[in-house]
Design brief:
The protein is α/β, with parallel strands linked by helices. About 15% of the residues lie in helices and about 35% in strands. Bound molecules: FE2/S2 (inorganic) cluster (FES). FE2/S2 (inorganic) cluster binds next to loops.
Length: about 270
C-alpha cells in the first residue's frame, strides 16, 4: 500500500485529562485509502530534542472533511511536545503505515480495548458501522480516566466498560467480563488492542473456542518502515517487523500465543 508524506494543519488539540489528548488534523492533500489499524509516523516539532518520528494509531478518519484524528497518551518528551501544539500549526506525517484489521463481510464481532489500546479501535468500529456490521465493544482501563472517550464508541455499537478500581463500568479486568466468559461463544471474530498480556489472554480464550482473533500489537517502534528491526515479533513463518507486517496480526500467525492461560494485568 502506497505511503504518503503530507503536511497537516492542526484543527484542534483537545486535552481530555492529565493523561490524554486528541489532535484533529486537516490534510493538505486528499486523503488516500486508510485501513483501521494503520498508523502514522509524526514528526515532532523541535527536532533538536526529539529526533525520531513518533508512531500513533490513526484514531478516526473523516474522508468528507479530509481529516484524521490521533488519540495520544502523554508518556515522554515527544508526546509532551505534541500536547502543546496549537490550532493552525503544521504537523508532518508519513502514513498510512503497516497493515490494519481485516474486516469480515459479516460476522458477530467483539472489539476489546485496554488502556491506550483503544486508540485504533474507534476507526475500526466506525468502519464496521459504515458497512452495516454491528459489534459489542468492551473497553477496560485502570480507572475512568482511561475510558474518557467511551461515548464516542457508543455511537457505533453496544458498549461495555471495566475498570480495575471500579470508577467506571464493572470492577475488574477486561478478561473477567462475561463477554469473554460464557458469552464468548456468541462471537465469530474478536478484534483487540492493548497490553500484550491482555492480548495473549484474549488470544488464548479465542483459540479455545475456535474464534477468529486479530490483535494490534504495541511493540516499540523507531523507524516505522522496516529498517531498524527494533519492533520484531516471532511468527509461525519467522521473525516479522510489527511496523510493516503488522501492527495487526491474526493470532494464529503469532508463535507461541496459543499457550495455556497467562496472567493478565489489565
Ligand atoms: Fe524500525 Fe519496525 S520500527 S523496523
Amino acid at each position: 500500500m502506497k505511503k504518503f508524506i503530507h503536511d497537516f494543519t492542526v484543527l484542534s488539540n483537545t486535552r481530555l485529562n492529565q493523561k490524554y489528548f486528541v489532535l484533529e488534523l486537516h490534510a493538505s492533500a486528499p486523503l488516500p485509502r486508510i485501513e483501521p489499524g494503520q498508523f502514522a509516523a509524526v514528526l515532532v516539532p523541535n527536532p533538536a530534542e526529539v529526533f525520531l518520528r513518533r508512531p500513533f494509531s490513526i484514531h478516526d478518519v473523516d474522508f468528507t472533511k479530509n481529516t484524521i484524528k490521533l488519540f495520544i497518551k502523554i508518556v515522554g518528551k515527544g508526546t509532551e511536545a505534541l500536547s502543546q501544539i496549537q490550532t493552525g500549526e503544521t504537523l508532518n506525517l508519513i502514513y498510512p503505515l503497516g497493515k490494519g484489521f481485516q474486516i469480515p463481510r459479516q460476522s458477530k464481532i467483539l472489539v476489546v480495548g485496554g488502556g491506550c489500546g483503544i486508540a485504533p479501535l474507534l476507526f475500526l468500529v466506525h468502519a464496521l458501522h459504515s458497512k452495516g456490521i454491528g459489534c459489542d465493544i468492551l473497553l477496560g482501563g485502570h480507572s475512568a480516566d482511561d475510558l474518557i472517550i467511551f461515548e464516542q464508541f457508543a455511537k457505533y455499537g453496544s458498549i461495555h466498560l471495566m475498570t480495575e478500581d471500579g470508577s467506571a463500568g464493572e470492577k475488574g479486568l477486561v478478561t473477567q467480563h462475561p463477554l469473554l466468559g460464557n458469552s464468548i461463544i456468541e462471537f465469530h471474530t474478536i478484534f483487540a488492542c492493548g497490553p500484550t498480556p491482555m492480548l495473549k489472554a484474549i488470544s488464548d480464550l479465542a483459540a479455545r473456542h475456535y474464534i477468529e482473533c486479530q490483535v494490534s500489537l504495541e511493540n516499540t517502534m523507531a523507524c516505522g518502515i522496516g529498517a531498524c528491526l527494533c519492533c520484531v515479533v516471532k511468527t509461525t513463518s519467522g521473525n516479522r517487523c510489527v511496523c510493516t507486517e503488522g501492527p495487526v496480526f491474526d493470532t494464529k500467525e503469532l508463535a507461541g500465543w496459543h499457550q495455556p492461560m497467562v496472567k493478565c494485568d489489565l
